[in-house]
Design brief:
six-stranded mixed β-sheet, 10 helices, alpha/beta
């Protein structure tokens, strides 16, 4: 199979000119600016120390003024959490393959992370299984990651269940990281919210949803991804049904966004290849202001 990373870079060039690509890379770097320090230990306050570093609880316990010392973190860990369930083998809102859009999102973020010297990992899967690739750098690692997403997303996959991947992370991964969740357009269950609360207490999280194709108002045949039943022509052409679908989708997206906002998670919607770069820019810009 041809290199997926090369294809991702080509799509970036096609859908975003050099200035926009540069802005996206700059926005990625700004997310971590000022967050690249980890707590090391406590020591006694000395004249000239920044009072913002005083640990008041430790000071109260010890009876002398104590400050926190930090060490620089050279590399950040970016974990791509990718839904490879059956619904991700369907068509996106703009008519592109959701699998290809998912690969593009993962590829762009991985490519930018490598340029900043960061490490990228992967947890992908469906309702039955999970696949984990440890944090590494290098183009060959990213290519392996993208190939795994591509080959795992097909009509034979089990149904999607992103809570399964999040639970795996909660149980098996401990290091500090940024989670980038790439998934289908569906309700966020209470089970999923509970796992997200636990993960958000330790990690930064952003959520990218790939929008659904309606299958309506088109001249070609459309199929339901689960039952593979064809959508009849007379239904596809009914304007009222299309309006009802759009109303339902708007309500779902509003509920979806409100839920993630309450959890302190920045989110965005990608409709297809054409707006991946612009939407990632918006997501990272908002994430930069999250505390």
């Amino acid at each position: 199979m041809p290199s997926l990373l090369v294809k991702v870079k080509a799509k970036m060039t096609l859908h975003a000119h050099e200035k926009v690509r540069g802005l996206l890379e700059g926005q990625y770097g700004s997310v971590f600016k000022g967050r690249s320090l980890d707590f090391d230990d406590l020591r006694e306050y000395l004249p000239g120390d920044d009072i913002k570093d005083i640990d008041w609880r430790a000071t109260a316990r010890s009876g002398s003024t104590r400050i926190r010392r930090y060490v620089a973190v050279r590399k950040h860990n970016i974990l791509l959490v990718v839904d490879t369930g059956r619904s991700m083998a369907a068509t996106s809102e703009d008519g592109d393959s959701k699998r290809d859009v998912s690969v593009m999102i993962a590829g762009i973020l991985s490519y930018i992370a490598l340029k900043h010297g960061d490490l990228v990992g992967l947890v992908a899967g469906d309702s039955r299984s999970n696949y984990h690739l440890s944090f590494k750098g290098g183009n060959s690692h990213v290519e392996q990651l993208l190939q795994q997403i591509h080959k795992s997303t097909n009509l034979d996959s089990a149904p999607s269940r992103i809570a399964n991947q999040l639970e795996y992370i909660s149980q098996h991964l401990r290091r500090k990281m940024m989670l980038v969740i790439i998934t289908d357009e569906s309700e966020i269950t209470e089970e999923c919210q509970q796992v997200l609360r636990r993960l958000r207490a330790q990690h930064e999280i952003v959520w990218v949803t790939i929008g659904d194709y309606s299958g309506l108002n088109c001249n070609h045949e459309s199929y339901d991804i689960d039952g593979l039943a064809s959508l009849p022509y007379f239904i596809r052409k009914q304007g009222q049904i299309l309006q009802e679908f759009n109303n339902y989708r708007n309500q779902l997206r509003l509920s979806h966004t409100k839920t993630l906002d309450r959890l302190g998670i920045v989110s965005g919607y990608v409709s297809g290849d054409r707006n991946v770069v612009s939407e990632l820019f918006k997501i990272l810009e908002r994430q930069r202001h999250v505390k």
